[in-house]
């Protein structure tokens, strides 16, 4: 992996760093939701229409990035959009990875799913139901971004790059944008492949992301993962990793559709 992913010779002289991991960018989240929309049963569509009422015309693809827009504005304990599973871990541990002040994205998925199922009672709060749906759509997308499943979330800068993007942003947004395709075109292209995907659980999805980050992004190199030095990306880096991004977007969309169908069955 180091042939594609070399540690730069010169370290940054200083690096005041504050990382807020935002998951897929607007485009990626929309792709996930567009794919999910194509999987929905009539019952799921009807249930979503009731919850969304007139908001976003009932389209989850129009609210897929809502959770990012309100980050830091929510009262009470915040839910992280990542789950920081240690580099060398071989399994997810709720006690180790999802406790403390900020609950992790796995907890966020399970919480939102539970609230939607419980909310089918007549006395449920429609506003809370809508919020739970928006969070669920977003969190399932987030947990499929590889750098959202590992403790080393990609804080280092990349080069060559005028913007000196962090590696995390490269995987959030830049690889997707490098395709120069609209979210609608990407979703259509991925749906044409429509590989079968095991549904699994949020915990398993998180471990999939962890393992991709560990093996492919960091090449099983713990020192590289922990480094804050800028790294050099080969000129074909975006193209070479597009297939991985495609697979994660497709898996997220198919799984989101299945979760929603199960909730509203």
From TrEMBL:
This protein's UniProt keywords: Disulfide bond, Endonuclease, Glycoprotein, Hydrolase, Metal-binding, Nuclease
Keyword presence, Ubl conjugation: no
InterPro entries for this protein: PLipase_C/P1_nuclease_dom_sf, S1/P1nuclease
Pfam family, one: S1-P1_nuclease
Coiled-coil residue windows: none
Keyword Metal-binding assigned: yes
CDD domains associated with the record: S1-P1_nuclease
Database matches in PANTHER family: ENDONUCLEASE 4
Protein's name according to its UniProt entry: S1/P1 nuclease
Organism of derivation: Pseudomonas kermanshahensis
């Amino acid at each position: 992996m180091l042939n594609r992913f070399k540690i730069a010779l010169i370290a940054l002289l200083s690096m005041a760093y504050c990382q807020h991991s935002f998951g897929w960018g607007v485009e990626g989240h929309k792709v996930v939701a567009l794919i999910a929309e194509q999987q929905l049963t009539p019952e799921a569509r009807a249930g979503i229409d009731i919850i969304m009422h007139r908001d976003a015309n009932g389209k989850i693809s129009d609210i897929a990035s809502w959770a990012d827009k309100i980050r830091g504005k929510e009262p009470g304990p915040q839910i992280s959009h990542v789950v920081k599973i240690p580099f060398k871990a071989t399994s997810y541990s709720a006690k180790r990875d999802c406790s403390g002040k900020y609950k992790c994205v796995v907890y966020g998925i399970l919480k939102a799913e539970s609230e939607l199922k419980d909310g089918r009672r007549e006395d449920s709060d429609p506003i809370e139901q809508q919020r739970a749906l928006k969070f669920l759509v977003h969190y399932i997308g987030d947990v499929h971004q590889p750098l959202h499943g590992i403790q080393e979330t990609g804080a280092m800068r990349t080069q060559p790059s005028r913007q000196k993007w962090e590696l995390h942003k490269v995987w959030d947004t830049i690889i997707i944008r490098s395709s120069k395709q609209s979210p609608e075109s990407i979703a259509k292209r991925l749906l044409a492949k429509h590989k079968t995907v095991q549904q699994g659980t949020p915990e398993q999805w998180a471990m999939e992301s962890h393992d991709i980050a560990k093996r492919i992004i960091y090449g099983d190199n713990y020192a590289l993962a922990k480094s804050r030095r800028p790294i050099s990306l080969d000129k074909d880096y975006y193209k070479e990793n597009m297939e991985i991004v495609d697979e994660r977007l497709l898996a997220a969309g198919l799984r989101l559709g299945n979760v929603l169908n199960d909730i509203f069955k």
